[in-house]
């Protein structure tokens, strides 16, 4: 569904994102930290050169061209932080959603009596809060019929 | 009621008729055995007092009489110069008695009307006499015999598909089994007897369970609250009856299939295999409707445990316990 | 599930005990020159079914090495997996893995080999998908399906073994006139190729690095991947000329491919996995030349230093917060001095630097290959692969330890954790001494080799030169200039694509098409649906006959009688 536009980006945002992806790109190819700093400065220089352009068409083509260039020269092993999406340790720890606790069987729940007693209390409080805020839908429906 | 003197008399007469047929050297004595058998079975059918039952008994009587007449005529024709016609008529009469396929139409209405115990007798014990005579007089080399075997196999398999009554399903499966039995008997008596005994035990097990829970229609099955152990029992018993490999019911089928292949009766063998698939399918449908499809628990009645003999018969019929029979053959 | 606090120690202790038993049995058997058969006859008439265990010096030494590594790995993972909620499942899986490997090693019977072989495949799947992420599950799938190909080959060869009447193949080694089908060697070869990840099936080996690092140390050093090599060594008596020639080219290609790809790889564990692949290629190469004992020798030494390499990498990954990308390493020798020493030891051993473990086996293979004079192509490729090994090993060392700081964070407390460092030190010791010890045990008499001077120096020359080259390149990181080569090699010669999407996409699309047209289309309409409609009609007609009056029944009977008379007369 990549072709669906789900957000509207301002011009500044577009350029900033492009700059960030250019920096990442340079980092992937750099053999060491010093080389990366040098390349990053070069990228900055390129962006600064076109900072004061006013011709909208030219700006647009420039952005598109840069995107195309980044795509063509993309690294075969893009750098990912370990815990970010695509990284080596991403998704190792499963966090089950809160409602799973409601599906525990009674004997499982009995192992943590205090916690579940408090949980029931909190659920009731939350229901009261919810009905106060949004109204009782079930009752309304019943009323209409 | 079951041990009333008249009933005991009937049962003894049936057993006597079987002994008569088994041991008789002549066709005429065998015929007398058949007649005795018919007359003794009629009161059994009438043990349930209803309009349907009396109609069924009349139907049974008339068909059996017609068949007996044919057998007698066939026997007489042995004296005449055209012997081929004699065996043919004999075979026709015996097939009617067996309820084999082109002549099976009478069995259905009787099966529907009778209780479980007479049904069991009708499907098993009543077939001993004609089968024995068949073994003596007929063979698979006869074209008409071939036709009867094939049509029993096919009719028993396919016509059972549309049935929803448990009695009809068991009847059609027994028509299918008659096809197997006739093939087995044309090879040797021991294979046929073995098949028959195993068929008897497996059928006994499932009929006992149906009798216990008084199930006569497929729709009743999901409404029963079976205990899981009883479910398993019925499940395995029916699978064994259908002839699924690990169960006992598969063993005689295997023997017969091997014989048909070694005698290169490939048509019969192929029809047997494909039709046993269909038979297995309608047993499975019976069971799926009972246990697999979510198991609707409408009734809160707790089912009583089955009596011990049922378990015994079930274990005997499902597992290789029945294998011990092989030593008696 | 109650957690046993000392489960890891107990299992480790148990495995190390078994290791000593197996090792000393091996020494005894090799000094006596005997082997022991345990046969449990199970039955069978025309085909002999029996459970057999074969204890000879080969199986005992291999078992000892496997148990040594697994004992250390279990000890190591006590600390490595300490924070994991499912650590008990992990350790039991590892134990099952070792058990199925032991079955595989000890049985000379194709049926029980299948048992171990299938167990390895199944449990390796369970270990690769140990972390519940999407990446691991896809990696596990490619692993288990690639291995499944080998399982099927073994199953098929079992079917062929029925025709000779005994599943015990070590018996057949003594008979020259047994008529084996031509298919058996090919099937065994194919099975070994899938397990040892030779070229068309290489994709799963780097993918399986999604498993926890201790598992990689166990699986990719001594157990899973070497099962294929071991199988071929055991089946050496039926490998004919055709199979050997096929294996020669495949193994050379695998060696070359993995060497090149490792240079373009950035994931620490994948680099080590690819180096395993190139060493497996080396073993397969020596098998294809007929040097089975040398292949086995290299298998043992390689297992020891490769396990060490993985364990060191595990400490680095652990210390650097699960980061595996070597771009974020650099200058780690300051943080991890001990690990640096051990890992360099393993790396240099891998390169075949003299008097380390790898030297003894690798040098023998190279020199014997030279002596048999296998043609310029084979020799040249062999030397190139030797130098490729040096290139990627030195690149790894340079980028992670020597070179300038890369930008990641790391903590060096791991070096004071004895259950992490202990196994590493022990394995360093074994990979130092295992070379000479194993060579004395395996080869009582020295091998006689005649070579011209330039060939004798060839191996050392290639190793030295490539060492210098890589050092002068300061750890190659490729740039745009490499262009297509970097893409091609960076994506592992498109092998993952070939075994993954490339193979399945087209098939799945076609299958979808077929499903719509046939299975849910006219085939359904005319077969099952049509049968249902027609059969229903026929059956309704049939039922009408059956439930109607007795007169009709009798009419039908008489009709049949009439028909019969006509037929007879």
SSE diagram, text form:
The complex is a heterotrimer of chains A (145), B (329) and C (569).
Chain A: H1 11-29, H2 33-49, H3 56-72, H4 106-109, H5 113-134, H6 137-144
Chain B: H1 5-23, H2 27-45, H3 51-77, H4 83-98, H5 105-113, H6 116-123, H7 128-137, H8 143-159, H9 166-187, H10 189-213, H11 228-242, H12 250-262, H13 266-292, H14 308-318
Chain C: H1 7-32, E1 36-43, E2 49-55, H2 57-80, H3 87-106, H4 110-128, H5 134-164, H6 169-172, H7 183-195, H8 204-207, H9 213-219, H10 224-234, H11 241-263, H12 268-288, H13 292-319, H14 337-351, H15 357-371, H16 376-402, H17 418-442, H18 453-472, H19 483-490, H20 495-499, H21 501-547, H22 550-568
Antiparallel strand pairs in C: 1-2
- Radius of gyration of chain A equals 27 Å
Outline of chain A: elongated
Q: Strand count, sense and closure of the main sheet of chain A? A: none
Question: What oligomeric state do these chains adopt?
Answer: heterotrimer
What's the end-to-end separation of chain C, in Å? 83 Å
Structural class of chain A: mainly alpha
**Count of strand segments of chain A:** 0
Global structural class of chain C: mainly alpha
Q: How many E-type strands of chain C?
A: 2
Q: Please report which band the strand proportion of chain A falls in: under 5%, 5-15%, 15-25%, 25-35%, 35-45% or over 45%.
A: under 5%
The sequence of SSEs of chain C as H and E is HEEHHHHHHHHHHHHHHHHHHHHH
Strand order of the largest sheet of chain C: 1-2
Helix content of chain A: 55-70%
| Percent of residues in β-strands of chain C | under 5%
Distance between the termini of chain A: 42 Å
Unreliable spans of chain C: none
The number of distinct helices of chain A, counting runs of at least 4 residues, comes to 6
Order of H and E elements of chain A: HHHHHH
GO cellular component, one term (chain B): mitochondrial inner membrane
Keywords (chain B): Electron transport, Membrane, Mitochondrion, Mitochondrion inner membrane, NAD, Respiratory chain, Translocase, Transmembrane, Transmembrane helix, Transport, Ubiquinone
GO molecular function (chain B): NADH dehydrogenase (ubiquinone) activity
InterPro entries (chain B): Complex_I_Subunit_2, NADH_UbQ_OxRdtase_chain2, ND/Mrp_TM
Structural description of this entry:
Chain B: It is found in: Mitochondrion inner membrane. The complex is a heterotrimer of chains A (145), B (329) and C (569). Chain A contains six helices and no strands. In chain A, α1 packs antiparallel against α2 and α1 runs parallel beside α3. Chain A starts with 10 loop residues before the first helix and ends with a helix. Chain B is mainly alpha-helical. Chain C has 569 residues and is mainly α. Chain C has three domains: 237 residues, no CATH class; 239 residues, no CATH class; 54 residues, no CATH class. The mean pLDDT of chain C is 87. Classes of the chains: A mainly alpha (145), B mainly alpha (329), C mainly alpha (569). The interface between A and C is medium-sized, with 24 and 33 residues.
């Amino acid at each position: 569904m990549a072709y669906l536009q789900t957000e509207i980006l301002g011009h500044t945002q577009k350029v900033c994102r492009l700059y960030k992806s250019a920096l990442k790109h340079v980092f992937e190819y750099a053999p060491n930290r010093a080389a990366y700093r040098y390349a990053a400065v070069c990228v900055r220089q390129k962006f600064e050169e076109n900072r004061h352009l006013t011709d909208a068409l030219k700006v647009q083509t420039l952005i598109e061209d840069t995107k195309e260039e980044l795509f063509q020269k993309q690294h075969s092993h893009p750098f990912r932080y370990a815990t970010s999406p695509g990284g080596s340790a991403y998704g190792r720890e499963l966090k089950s959603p809160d409602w799973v606790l409601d599906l525990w069987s009674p004997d499982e729940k009995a192992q943590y009596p205090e916690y579940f007693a408090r949980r029931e209390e909190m659920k009731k409080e939350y229901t009261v809060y919810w009905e106060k805020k949004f109204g009782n839908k079930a009752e309304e429906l019943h009323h209409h019929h | 009621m079951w041990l009333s003197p008249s009933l005991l008399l009937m049962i003894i007469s049936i057993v006597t008729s079987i002994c008569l047929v088994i041991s008789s050297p002549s066709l005429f004595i065998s015929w007398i055995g058949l007649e005795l058998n018919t007359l003794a079975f009629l009161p059994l059918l009438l043990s349930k007092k209803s309009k349907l039952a009396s109609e069924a008994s009349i139907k049974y009587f008339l068909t059996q009489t017609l068949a007996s007449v044919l057998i007698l005529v066939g026997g007489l024709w042995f004296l005449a110069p055209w012997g081929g016609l004699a065996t043919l008529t004999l075979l026709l009469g015996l097939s009617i008695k067996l309820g084999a396929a082109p002549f099976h139409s009478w069995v259905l209405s009787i099966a529907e009307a009778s209780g479980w115990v007479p049904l069991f007798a009708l499907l098993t014990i009543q077939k001993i006499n004609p089968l024995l005579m068949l073994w003596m007089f007929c063979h698979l080399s006869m074209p008409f015999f071939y036709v009867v075997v094939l049509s029993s196999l096919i009719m028993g398999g396919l016509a059972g598909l549309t049935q929803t009554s448990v009695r009809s399903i068991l009847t059609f499966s027994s028509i299918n089994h008659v096809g197997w039995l006739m093939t087995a008997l044309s090879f040797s008596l021991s294979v046929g007897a073995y098949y028959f005994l195993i068929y008897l035990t497996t059928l006994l097990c499932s009929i006992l369970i149906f009798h216990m829970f008084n199930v006569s229609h497929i729709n009743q099955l999901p409404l029963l609250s079976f205990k899981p152990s009883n479910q398993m029992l019925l499940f395995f018993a029916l699978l064994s009856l259908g002839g699924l490999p690990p169960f006992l019911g598969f063993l005689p089928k295997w023997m017969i299939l091997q014989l048909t292949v070694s005698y290169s009766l490939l048509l019969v063998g192929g029809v047997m295999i494909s039709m046993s698939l269909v038979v297995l399918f309608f047993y499975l449908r019976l069971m799926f409707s009972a246990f697999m499809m979510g198991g609707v628990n409408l009734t809160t009645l707790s089912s009583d445990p089955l009596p011990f003999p049922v378990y015994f018969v079930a274990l005997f019929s499902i597992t290789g316990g029945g294998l011990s029979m092989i030593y008696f053959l | 599930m109650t957690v046993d606090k000392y489960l890891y120690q107990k299992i480790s202790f148990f495995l190390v005990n078994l290791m000593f038993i197996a090792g000393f049995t091996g020494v005894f058997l090799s000094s006596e020159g005997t082997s022991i058969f345990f046969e449990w006859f199970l039955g069978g008439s025309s085909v002999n079914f029996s459970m057999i265990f074969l204890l000879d010096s080969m199986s005992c030494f291999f078992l000892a090495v496997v148990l040594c590594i697994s004992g250390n790995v279990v000890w190591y993972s006590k600390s490595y997996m300490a924070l994991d909620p499912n650590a008990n499942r992990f350790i039991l899986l590892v134990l099952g893995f070792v058990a199925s490997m032991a079955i595989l090693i000890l049985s000379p019977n194709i049926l029980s080999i299948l048992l171990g072989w299938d167990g390895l495949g199944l449990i390796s799947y369970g270990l690769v998908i140990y972390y519940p992420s999407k990446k691991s599950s896809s990696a596990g799938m490619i692993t288990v399906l690639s291995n499944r190909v080998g399982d099927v080959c073994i199953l098929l060869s079992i079917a062929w073994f029925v025709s000779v009447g005994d599943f015990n193949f070590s018996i057949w080694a003594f008979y020259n006139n047994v008529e084996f089908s031509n298919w058996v060697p090919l099937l065994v070869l194919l099975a070994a190729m899938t397990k040892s990840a030779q070229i068309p099936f290489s994709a799963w080996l780097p993918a399986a690095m999604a498993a926890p690092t201790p598992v990689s140390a166990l699986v990719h050093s001594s157990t899973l991947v070497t099962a294929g090599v071991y199988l071929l060594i055991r089946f050496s008596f039926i490998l004919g000329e055709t199979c050997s020639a096929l294996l020669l080219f495949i193994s050379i290609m695998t060696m070359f491919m993995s060497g090149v790809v490792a240079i373009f790889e950035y994931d620490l564990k994948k680099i080590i996995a690819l180096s395993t692949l190139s060493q497996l290629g080396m073993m397969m190469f020596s098998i294809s030349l007929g040097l089975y004992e040398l292949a086995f020798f290299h298998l043992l030494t390689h297992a020891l230093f490769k396990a060490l390499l993985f364990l060191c990498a595990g400490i680095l990954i652990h210390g650097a917060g699960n980061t595996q990308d070597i771009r974020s390493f650099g200058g780690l020798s300051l943080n991890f001095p001990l690990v640096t020493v051990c890992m360099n030891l393993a790396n240099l051993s891998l390169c075949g630097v003299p008097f380390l473990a790898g030297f003894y086996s690798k040098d023998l293979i190279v020199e014997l290959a030279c002596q048999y004079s296998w043609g310029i192509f084979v020799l040249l490729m062999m030397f190139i692969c030797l130098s490729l090994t040096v290139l990627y090993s030195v690149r790894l060392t340079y980028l992670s330890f020597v070179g300038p700081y890369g930008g990641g964070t790391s903590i060096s407390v791991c070096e004071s954790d004895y259950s992490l460092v202990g196994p590493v030190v022990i394995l360093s010791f074994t990979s130092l001494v295992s070379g000479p010890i194993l060579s004395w045990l395996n080869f009582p008499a020295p091998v006689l080799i005649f070579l011209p001077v330039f060939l004798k120096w060839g191996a050392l020359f290639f190793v030295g030169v490539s060492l210098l080259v890589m050092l002068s390149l300061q750890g190659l990181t490729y740039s745009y200039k490499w262009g297509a080569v970097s893409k091609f090699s960076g994506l592992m010669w498109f092998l993952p694509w070939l075994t993954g999407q490339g193979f399945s996409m087209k098939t799945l699309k076609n299958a979808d098409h077929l499903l719509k047209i046939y299975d849910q289309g006219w085939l359904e309409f005319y077969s099952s649906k049509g049968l249902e409609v027609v059969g229903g009609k026929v059956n309704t007609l049939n039922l009408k006959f059956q439930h109607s009056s007795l007169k009709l029944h009798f009419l039908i009977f008489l009709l049949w009688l009439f028909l019969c008379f006509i037929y007879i007369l």
